[in-house]
Amino acid sequence: MQAARTIEILRTERGLSQRQLADRVTALGHPMSNTMLSRIERAQRRCDADDLVAISEALLISPLVLLQRPTAT
């Protein structure tokens, strides 16, 4: 649940839509639709380790950041 909220916070802070982030993740070789990302952000879909790593790469952060308590800046 923490990772889901943190992904949403970081995505919006960077001014990215769900589609844009999903496209970045896909471009890195991990196919992801904006629907899939939306479900991850709403904690309706499990965020597997490979999803977590790909999303963190697309956001240019360490995967550990996504596992920390979410904080809005």
From TrEMBL:
SUPFAM superfamilies linked: lambda repressor-like DNA-binding domains (SSF47413)
Residue ranges occupied by any HTH cro/C1-type domain in the UniProt entry: 7-66
Residues of the signal peptide: none
Alphabetized CDD domains for the sequence: HTH_XRE
A Pfam match: HTH_3
SMART domains assigned: HTH_XRE
Protein name as it appears in the record: HTH cro/C1-type domain-containing protein
Source species: Streptomyces chryseus
